[in-house]
Amino acid sequence: MYLLSDIKCIILMIICLIQWIICYEMSEDKIQVSEFDVIPGGSLLSHEKEWNGFVCKFSYTCQGGTKEQWLMGLSLNEDQTKFQCSVERPGGGGSYLFFQSFKLKISGADVKEGDAAGSSNAPLKPSEYIVDLKENMITDVPGKFASHLERVTLYSEKGRSEL
Predict the structure, then answer these.
(1) Of 92, 88, 46, 94, which is closest to residue 71 (Cα–Cα)?
(2) What is this structure's pTM?
(3) How far apart are CA 137 and CA 57, in angstroms?
(4) Where residue 160 falls among pLDDT bands split at 50, 70, 90?
(5) Residue of 70, 1, 86 lying closest to 36 (CA atoms)
(6) Bridge-based pairing state of the strands 110-117 and 137-140
(7) Distance, CA of 4 to CA of 109 (rounded, Å)
(8) Model confidence at 162, in pLDDT bands (50, 70, 90)?
(9) pLDDT grade, residue 25 (50/70/90)?
(10) Strand ranges (DSSP E) for the chain?
(11) d(CA 145, CA 102)
(12) Is the separation of the CB atoms in 103 and 58 below 8 Å?
């Protein structure tokens, strides 16, 4: 059981590293992964992780059968100025849950961009979600979101103070 879990974590860390390098051309980054259960039932639930002054919080409501295991991956570049948070179903496995809402929010850095994917890891339509740079989050658009979510990611940068 633990071996399968370790393999899932390694796969997610590799995916996060590749995404981070592509988006931010980083020399070396640090990665943390946490597992959590996405639980259906229509209640607003969340999973939060803090790391080096950055906080990533995923909130959602969903319906469906039983709980699913999901992963939250955090990446931080060497000089701690670029931070990525990704929440996804591990191993590219599809989710059978129907999400009523989702929100991924970062504190401690300014969001620069974000993306989300639904069934078969296909990008959600731009009308289904919004990246709110002012609020440092990505969230569904009520009435437009088609209820399928398998991955959501935010890319952010911490401002540098000039001397």
Answers:
(1) 88
(2) 0.81
(3) 9
(4) low
(5) 70
(6) unpaired
(7) 33
(8) very low
(9) very low
(10) 29-38, 45-51, 54-63, 68-77, 82-88, 98-107, 110-117, 129-132, 137-140, 151-157
(11) 10
(12) yes
